[in-house]
Design a protein that fits this description.
Layout (H helix, E strand, L loop, with lengths): L18 H12 L8 H18 L8 E3 L9 E7 L5 E6 L8 H21 L10 H10 L19 H7 L14 H4 L6 E4 L4 E4 L16 E2 L1
Length: 224
């Protein structure tokens, strides 16, 4: 992978970033690796935020706060809807526990969170938690980072153009990088809830030994 330059504060967005966002960006941009082990990566992520912003969002996203904090292992990254713990908005976190993955996958996580920001800032159609609605999945697929629609989590199914094309054009090695598919059960949307019926009413419960009588027909519920 060729050397990467530092990013810049987006100036094409009609919504200018708040001063705290600019301050964090400038701090990361001037921090040496001797002071912070993730300094270079932080600078690279700001640069690619700007690249993706111009390529995929017409430069309309404001410069966020980018952090590299640890989170649950199944979480690749997060975009904070609203303001974070110190009052800043547009906060993207990339899970530190996944920074050993190939750079192209880390960038896919970044782009995923930028789609959340796009919905929050531009379309206002971010819905309800976990904020993966029809518009989100359509945009992700269009940009080349399709997600698993079955379980509504931030689960990357693969990578393709135009995402890979943009990455390769800016020196990112994408050869031999394979996304591990989710378990078949998750793809099928299987649930632990089982169907039981008394004859007039159906219910779904996660209890293996479900003992209940219908108050309407007075019959016992049985596995349907």
């Amino acid at each position: 992978m060729s050397p990467l330059e530092c990013g810049k504060v987006s100036t094409t967005s009609p919504r200018q970033p708040e001063s705290v966002n600019i301050a964090v960006f400038e701090h990361v941009s001037t921090t040496e690796e001797s002071e912070w082990e993730f300094a270079r990566l932080g600078q690279d992520l700001y640069r690619f935020f700007d690249i993706f912003n111009e390529a995929f969002f017409n430069g309309k996203l404001t410069t966020p706060i980018l952090s590299l904090d640890s989170a649950r292992i199944r979480t690749g990254g997060t975009y904070r809807i609203g303001r974070n713990g110190f009052g800043a908005k547009n906060h993207i976190n990339i899970n530190r526990r996944h920074l050993d993955l190939p750079m192209v996958i880390v960038l896919a996580i970044l782009l995923h969170e930028q789609i959340h920001q796009w919905q929050h800032e531009i379309t206002k159609n971010y819905g309800k938690p976990p904020y993966h609605n029809v518009e989100f999945y359509k945009k992700a697929d269009e940009l080349g980072i399709p997600g698993n629609k079955r379980n509504k989590r931030c689960q990357l199914l693969g990578m393709k153009a135009p995402f890979l094309t943009v990455c390769e054009a800016h020196g990112i090695d994408t050869n031999g990088v394979v996304i591990q598919p989710p378990p078949e059960s998750e793809m099928k949307g299987q649930s632990k809830l089982k169907k039981w019926s008394c004859g007039c009413t159906n219910v779904r419960v996660a209890v293996a030994d479900f003992q209940a009588v219908c108050l309407k027909c007075r019959r016992k519920f049985k596995r349907a």
